[in-house]
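Input chain follows. Return C-alpha cells only.
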Amino acid sequence: SILTKLFKMKTKLFLFALLVSSCLFAQRTPETIESKKLGTRTFTVVTPPSYATSPEKSYPTLLVLDGEYLLDPFEGILKYGAYWDDLPEMIIIAVNQNYGETRFADSEFDDAGFPSGSGANFFEFIGQELYPYVDKKYRTIPFRMIAGHDTTAGFLNFYLYKDNPIFNAYISLAPEMAPEMEKRVAERLAKMTKPVFYYQATGEGDLKEINEKAAELDANIKAIPNATFKYQNDAFKGASHYSLVAKAVPNAIYFIFDGYQPISMVEFQDKILKLDAGYTDYLIAKYDELEKRFGFKMKPRLTDFKAIEAAIMKNKAYNELLPLSDYANKHYPKTTLGTYHEALYYEKTGNYKRAIKTYQRAFTQEPIREITKDFMLNRAEALKGKPDKPTEEVPAEVPTETPTEEPTEKKE
C-alpha cells in the first residue's frame, strides 16, 4: 500500500540521517572490563568523527583519569582544535574513579613513595589489562598521553619511574605528590632517551603544600642540563584548585602538539621568508618531524604548499619549485599540484615552450582546489608565441593570476 511504501521510505531516510549524523560527531562508547586485579571497572572510549569514515586511519590515545569530570574539558578542546586542523584527532579513554574512595584507592602508595596495595594493582591494570583491551578493539598508534588532577595527577608520575614508560606525554594538574616525587620525576626525566612531553599546572589559590612541591619539581626539572624532553610549567595567578583545569587543558594540549598546526602568518614571516634557501626542505622537515615525534603520517596540507610557494616567489628562488613539484607528486599523485609547480618553474625561468607542454599535461590529471584543468590550459594559452629567454635572464615579476597565497588564519 501507499502508507507502507511511505513508512519504508521514511525509515530509510531516518536510518540514512542517523548514519550521516553519527559520522559527523565523536562517538562515546561505555565500556566494562573484568580485571583480574581490580574486579569490574568501567570507562568511556571516545572515538573522533573520522573514525567510522576512515577505516584505514589509526589514532593516538589520551588516557584521562578522573574521567567523570575531566573527559568533557579534554574532549572539548580536542574537538575544537581538530575542527581548525590545529590538533590531531585522538581516541580518549576516560577511566571512571569518582565513586566511594576509588580514586584514592587507585592512587595508593607506601611510606617510601611507591605504588602499593590497590595503587600497585591499578598501576598494572592500566598497562597490562586496559591498554591491551583498547589496542585490540580500537585502531590506535603507540603515541599515548595521560592526564590527571590532584591525587590522580600525582599517581600518573609513577609511570615515569619505569625504564620504558608506556606513555609519551604527561599532563599533571595540581598534583598531590608522593614522598620524594618532586626529586624522582626530575631524575627520571633526565635519563629519558625517547621523546617525552611533561606538562604541570598549578593555581595561585591552591593548597600551599601542592604549590610548594610543584614549584620544587619545576626547579629540579629546569636545572637538568641538555634536556632531551619537552617541558612546560604553568602557575596560574588567581586560579583555584578547580578553575586551573579550564585554563590548563588547552595549554597542555597545544604545548604537546606544538608544530602540528598549519603554517601560520607568524611562522611564514618570522621563519620561512627569512631563509636564504631551503624552502621546500623546510616543508619536508616539518612533516618528517611530526611523524618522528608522534608516530603518525600526515599528508602535507595544501595551505602549507601554498605558503612555501609564496615564499619561493617572494624571494625569487625559482629553482626550488622543482623539488616542491616532486614533493607534491609524492603526496598528491595524478593531480595538477606537482605539474603546476613544475610548469611555473619553466615559466619563471623563461622556458616558455616547455612550460606550455607541462601546463597542458593537466588535461589528463585530477584538479586540486583552484588549480583546475581550465586554469592550467589558460596558463598554457597565455604563453603561446612568447620566445624562450636566455637561461640567465629570469623575470622578477609575479603574475597576478598565479594561485600563490600566503598563509592565513582562516579554515580552508
